[in-house]
Amino acid sequence: MKKTIISIAAALCTVTMFAQPQLKKDNLNEVLKAMTLEEKAALCVGGARAAIVEGVTSGLVNEVPGAAGNTRPIARLGIPNTVLADGPAGLRINPTREGAGQTFYCTGFPVGTLLASSWDVALVQKVTEAMGNEVLEYGVDVLLAPGTNIHRNPLCGRNFEYFSEDPILSGNIAAAYINGIQANGVGTSLKHYAANNQETNRNEDDAIVSARALREIYLKTFEIAIKKADPWTVMSSYNKLNGEYTQQSEDLLTKVLREDWGYKGIVMTDWGNKQGTVKAVHAQNDLMEPGNQNEIDRIVAAVKDGTLSEADLDRNVLNMLTYIVKTPHFNNYKYSNKPDLAAHAKVAREGAAESIVLLKNDGAALPMAGNESVALYGIGAIDFVAGGTGSGNVNKAYVVNMVDGLKNAGFKLDQAIIDYYQSYIAFDKASKKLAGTAQGWSTWGGTKYSEIAVPANAVASHAKANDAAIIVIGRNAGEGADRKVIDDFELTDIERNLISNVSREFHALGKKVVVVLNIGGVIETASWKHLADAIVLPWSPGQEGANAVADILVGKVNPSGKLPMTFPISYIDHPSSANFPSNYTRNTTPMFGWGRPAPKQKDVDFTNYEEGIWVGYRFFETNAVEVSYPFGFGLSYTSFAYSKPVVKAGKDGFTATVTVTNTGKVAGKEVVELYVSAPAAGLEKPEKELKAFAKTGLLQPGQSETLTFEVSAYELASFNENANCWETAAGAYTVKFGASVADIRATAAYKQAKAQTWAVSNAFVK
To answer: Which of 442, 443, 397 is nearest to 543 (CA)?
Structure first.
């Protein structure tokens, strides 16, 4: 360390003898030439854990307390630091600061899965424009989001941050998210690139994935987001991919990302410190985060001994400078620290309500009048989950729970039931322990209390005293741990008994039972859904989410969300379940020295993605496997008819149109999903694949709207790994307009006159 400091100081003495260029938007190469080797290395390593060397690496680490990291300034060349902060459901910074006369709360927006359930790119962009304003006004340059990893398996602990099991939906929602944030003049970091589909052993797990599955499923979502939104940064993941760490993979970071897709931004690591810093630099991973002195030392030593070309380092430094001159810090933006949180809360509520999925509504149980007396059950009614834990958590000023949300909508709640749950979660201040049953599942950034039993005789009396019952089933998930099957994917015995008892007693008196699923990931529904009259799915809907649920319950907002993934009948129905580490134990070994629990390894050194492209509905539809709720499913309080399906071939692919008419009695919006079935030629294909989607505006009863879809020939292609190219077969394609993957309402034909191919780099070619 001392030797490095002395060498930097000596270099400074030399360079300050001459006039030094100051960084501008048009002199990047001049500044690069003026930099010392040590400065170049320092610029490519974050400053969160840096030794401070005046004028060179002074990191202003605490400029935005709670921010995840930063880049290092070089004062003599006019290079400022930049600030990087989590997270995907809203900015994550510390709400309090020593000596500050204000709080620095951020808005808790709906999680990624709920935003994807909107199937509405305009809505997503509106939500993230508000989110991005908080990034800007709190002095942050890059939001470390969105996460766009595929929902390969229901148990991934961070699925709530991600969008979908389908790369077309995921990629387009991610693009809208990025465009909304970056409209504020701040950046995003598209993550986690790539094949980061589990939390178990996420630092060392080796994802074994075929070239076709990689290109069609796990990389396609990133490709779409990059081509449609151009994120400022991409974050490489912790894991290995086919034997090589992603952050050190030239195939992934140079050949695919930059050569095949034309990406011009920077790549940063996820937060860690792997040994292969030099290999990462060579692969064009531009920034090591959160930053350690030993990474600088490795880079400097490698250039000096010839194991790293200085040209490679210069290339990365130029990438960094190109990024820096776009940032608010470089442009001297005077951030206010006072974003309009009240206005953003309204946007969060609207975004949640427009995305909520109605899974069941027998006998028009919903909407309710809003003045009913309600027996509200479930610890989640009070302990409502606004968002997940870990880096996806947000330090927000408040969370509206279901008690408050229903009261705000005009419902009259049975106070005795509320008191029963509140006494359970009350803390004994003297012992600092729960007064009730032991605390439930928890991880970094949050806690979820276990459900408690309600005596059957009490439920019987509640049924007599109230007009309806609402049951909240709660789940939380987060960074650092995957979910489990028993008592998580599946309901607990207490939850099953609660639904059963409440349904029996209320139905005996002809009264409604509504279940609200306040969950972070897919759960089993097939065994109990018949008991409820209505099931509402708001996922983890942000700080205003319970108000949004109430908006749906009373019909203030007509539900228009649809599932971005399949709900299977059983966990083992998912083909990935045979190769997902769902059974493991946890220990208290610190992760990165931050005190978070790490999984205890048990046969999880690698994960074999042997299901290939058969992820989610591609498997279920092609193999006619029954599911509980299909991909793309969602009900409405009105009905829609599809008519006039037309497909016209163009110079490149086709244009499709379909007319949607509201045939019901109330206003509503409809998502139309466009699937394509390929001819039986060439590669084996799924029975149908999503290729485009669109959402109508608010249609009044009897009103129609014609939706238009553009699909290129390239978007019809599958990846031929033997020929190492994308190929679209010639022949007859069936274009299907669906209300879900299992509910096709109209079809049309498209003929691809001749086969087409698209060459790619030799990445992943053995």
So the answer is: 397
